[in-house]
Design goal:
The protein has 436 residues and is of the alpha+beta class. It has 15 helices and 19 strands. The strands form 4 sheets. Strands 14-13-10-11-12-15-19-16 form an 8-stranded antiparallel sheet.
C-alpha cells in the first residue's frame, strides 16, 4: 500500500496498542486517545497519546481518504455513526453493534429473528425473582450480565444440575450490591459441546472475507480452572469456517446493513449433535483476539483496515493453518487491587537475538518505556500476547511457547495448555459433526 495513512485510535485502555505499533512499523502516523487516566502510561514512549480526540479531527479531515479513525470498545456506537455521517472513515462498531453485544435479550432475539435456534434464556432485573425461578425450574444455568463494564468474573458458568451454585452466587451478589444488580442479567440454559467462535469484518453493506474460526480459553489457570478473565489465550484459523458462517453469522447481514455497521463481528457458539447454539455477539475489535488474528495476515494491516473502512468488497490475504496466542500476565491479574505494589513497573526483558519475524509475534499490551527501559504499565498486569503460527495446530503451539519462554518477565504467569483440548478432541468432534 503506497498511501500513508493518518490513524486516530479512540478507546478506554489502548487495547489495540499492538495494532498501532504495527501500523507505525508500516510507516503510518498514529495518534491515540486513552479515556482512562490509569491507562495513560500504556505504550508510553511508543505511541503518541493525545489529550482530546475531538481536537484531532481536523488532522484526520485534512488527510481526506487517507485519514482513518479506529474505535476500540463497545459503547461509542452512536458517536461512530455520527462521525461516518460527517464524512469520516471510521472502523470499529456502530449503534446496532453496541445493542447486539450489550443487550443480551436483543442479541438473542435478533438471532432467532434471523432464523437461528438459541438456548432458552430468561431475563431478570432483580436477584429475588431469579432465585425463585431457579427454585421452580432446577437445572444447570449460566449467569450473564448485560453491558461490558463489569469484570469478566461477574458472569458465572453453573456446574450443578439443580442450579444451586447459581443461587449461591446470586445470593452473594445480592449482599455485595445491597440487593440490586447493577445490570439486567440473563439465566441461560447450559449447553454442552465444543465452544467455537467465528468472525468476519462487515464493511457497512456486506461481510468481507475471509471468515475466521476461534477457540478461546477464558479461565486463568490450565485445565480451565480459576477466574473468568476475558481471555488467557486463543487458537484461530482463517480456514474451514465457511459452512459454519453460512449457517449462522451470514443471516445477520440485513440487520447489520440497516445499521451501517463497519467493523468486526464475532459470534460465539456451542456446537453439539443437536446443532449450533449461538451464545453471544461481539461487534467490535476483540483483544487479544484481533492481535492473534493479525499473526495470520499476509498483507499489510493498514491495507486491510483501510479497505474495510472504505466499503471495498475485496477480501484480504491470510496464511493457512493456525495461530496460537498466549497472554502473559503479572500479579495481581486479573484484579487491579495491589497492582502498584505487586506488578506495576516490572522490567520486561526482550532478548537481543529475536528475529524480525519473532518480533511480529510479540503483541504489547500494558507496557511502556520508563527511562528507555520497557516496563509493565496500566491497570491490571495484562502485559503482552505472544503468538505462534503453523500449518498444524501443534506446530503453532510450539512456536508460541518457545517464544514466550524467551521473555524475561519476573513473576510471569500464563496458561501452558492453550490448544491442548482442541487438538486432543475438539477438532475431531467438529469434523465428526460435519462442521470442519
Amino acid at each position: 500500500m503506497a498511501r500513508r495513512l493518518r490513524v486516530l485510535g479512540i478507546g478506554d485502555y489502548n487495547e489495540l496498542g499492538s495494532i498501532y505499533l504495527r501500523l507505525i512499523a508500516e510507516g503510518h502516523e498514529v495518534r491515540v486517545y486513552i479515556a482512562e487516566a490509569g491507562a495513560h502510561d500504556v505504550l508510553a514512549g511508543l505511541v503518541d497519546r493525545v489529550a482530546s480526540w475531538e481536537a484531532e479531527l481536523a488532522w484526520i479531515r485534512d488527510a481526506g481518504r487517507d485519514g482513518l479513525i479506529l474505535f476500540e470498545d463497545a459503547g461509542r456506537g452512536e458517536l461512530q455513526d455520527r462521525l461516518r455521517r460527517d464524512g469520516y472513515l471510521v472502523l470499529g462498531g456502530s449503534a446496532i453493534g453496541d445493542r447486539l453485544e450489550q443487550d443480551r435479550g436483543f442479541g438473542q432475539a435478533s438471532l432467532r429473528g434471523a432464523g437461528l435456534a438459541t438456548a432458552e434464556s430468561t431475563y431478570f432485573e432483580d436477584f429475588g425473582a431469579a432465585i425463585a425461578f431457579i427454585a421452580a425450574h432446577p437445572r444447570r444455568y449460566v449467569l450473564k450480565f448485560d453491558g461490558t463494564d463489569l469484570t469478566s468474573d461477574a458472569n458465572y458458568v453453573g456446574a450443578r444440575d439443580d442450579g444451586g451454585d447459581v443461587i449461591a452466587i446470586m445470593t452473594r451478589y445480592r449482599r455485595q450490591w445491597r440487593g440490586e444488580p447493577p445490570r439486567r442479567f440473563a439465566l441461560m440454559r447450559h449447553v454442552d459441546g465444543v465452544e467455537t467462535g467465528l468472525g468476519c469484518f462487515f464493511n457497512g453493506d456486506r461481510f468481507v472475507g475471509p471468515v475466521n474460526l476461534d477457540w478461546e480459553h477464558k479461565r486463568l489457570f490450565p485445565g480451565d480452572l480459576g477466574e473468568l478473565t476475558g481471555e488467557m489465550g486463543t487458537v484461530v484459523s482463517y480456514r474451514g469456517g465457511d459452512k459454519l458462517f453460512a449457517a449462522t453469522l451470514a443471516h445477520l447481514e440485513p440487520l447489520l446493513r440497516a445499521g451501517r455497521h463497519v467493523g468486526y463481528v464475532n459470534l460465539n457458539t456451542i456446537i453439539n449433535a443437536d446443532g449450533v447454539w449461538p451464545l453471544e455477539l461481539t461487534c467490535r475489535f476483540g483483544y487479544p483476539g484481533f492481535a492473534i488474528l493479525s499473526a495470520l495476515f499476509d498483507e499489510p494491516c493498514a491495507a486491510i483496515l483501510h479497505r474495510i473502512a472504505t466499503g471495498d468488497t475485496a477480501g484480504f490475504a491470510t496464511h493457512g493453518g493456525y495461530a496460537v496466542g498466549v497472554v502473559l500476565t503479572v500479579p495481581p491479574f486479573p484484579y487491579h487491587h495491589g497492582y502498584a505494589e505487586l506488578g506495576k513497573g516490572t522490567p520486561v526483558g526482550l532478548p537481543a537475538e529475536l528475529s524480525a519475524e519473532e518480533r511480529r509475534h510479540l503483541h504489547f499490551a500494558e507496557v511502556g518505556l520508563d527511562g528507555g527501559d520497557l516496563v509493565t504499565t496500566g491497570l491490571v498486569g495484562y502485559t503482552m500476547v505472544v503468538t505462534g503460527r503453523g500449518e498444524a495446530l501443534g506446530e503453532a503451539q510450539r512456536a508460541a511457547y518457545q517464544l514466550a519462554g524467551k521473555i524475561a518477565l519476573p513473576n510471569v504467569r500464563y496458561r501452558t495448555d492453550i490448544g491442548d483440548a482442541l487438538r486432543a478432541h475438539g477438532l475431531a468432534e467438529l469434523r465428526r459433526l460435519g462442521w470442519l
